[in-house]
Amino acid sequence: MRGMLPPEPRPQALPHLWRRGDWRPPLLDAATLVTAEAAERRVLLLENPAFAGEYRVAATMHAGLQLLAPGETARPHRHSQAALRFVIEGAAAHTSVDGVRQDMQPGDFILIPAFTWHEHANPGTAPMIWLDGLDLPLVRLLGATFAQFSATEDPFAATASASATARFGPGLLPALRIDHAKPSGMVRYPYVEARGALESLRAAGSIDACHGCRLHYADPASGGHAMPTLAAYLQMLPAGFHGERYQSTEAFVHYVVEGSGSTGIRAIDGAMQSIAWSGGDLFVIPGWLAHRHAAHEDAVLFNLSDAAAQQNLGLWRERRA
User: Fold this and answer.
1) What CATH number should be reported for the domain holding residue 167?
2) Residue 125 near residue 92 (C-beta atoms within 8 A)
3) Is residue 7 part of a domain?
4) In a domain, 244, yes or no
5) Would you say residue 165 lies in a domain?
6) What is the pLDDT of residues 77-107, one digit of tens each?
7) I need a labelling partner for 165 at 20 to 30 A (CA). Which of 125, 183, 292, 296 fits?
8) What is this structure's pTM?
């Protein structure tokens, strides 16, 4: 019984760093080796060293880097897993979600709510790359996986989207604890607006001792997280920032949008690990591992986590220095 009920969480996942110089070349190679049709979606998976062969970046999350080559399309499909994407590179592609076209620009955050039809197309001349995040391990554990694939390239006529942004604005709020969340029609969160909101926080002196200037991508109708199972944040660490120690039950996948810095992580056994990161790098921090961020220059990080599921289940906890 004591083994099943430890006094604190004991994460199985390990901290890990994927540098841009390591993940980008094989992803570009994949475009010549695997067609989008053969793979359904061409994704370079981020595999946590603790979960070899399980395609998990953390206990409850799947993450990968997807590439859509020039002139390619990805046929419509839908699945019970919720998905999100953060655009890394390229500017000509678009995603359609239940028939509504969402143009994709670097830094944009786009939602694919559970069991919504979605497809991609890249009519441009350069590859389009984005970070995918899904609650796939959680849904598989619950035995609730369903998927459907369209027999046609376009089962619906995609229309341009502007209504959600017009109704809700940028859809970002101060990153306070959220106890309940429900999805809404907000799908695309443009980076230019999110970046401006971070600058406004800095100008107002709203700098958290652990997180710097931090916003969560919100369902603007409820104020909750954008997804019932997945949370996403955008944070700015000002140059010279040295954060205080922080730990929470949620696992984090960080993508470095801008700048450089380092993160110190304390393992359950007390061992310290320092991860030095810069633009284009990705790193994972398992739940309940104490950590602190430092920025060598102004840095912007996109964060994916499972906080939404934990908070909706009443399981989320945090501890500050």
Assistant:
1) 2.60.120.10
2) yes
3) no
4) yes
5) yes
6) 999 999 999 999 998 899 999 988 899 999 9
7) 125
8) 0.89
User: How many independent structural domains does the chain possess?
Assistant: 1
Q: Rounded mean pLDDT of the chain?
A: 90
Q: What is the pLDDT of residues 63-73, one digit of tens each?
A: 999 999 999 99
pLDDT digits (tens, 9 = 90+) for 287-297: 999 999 999 99
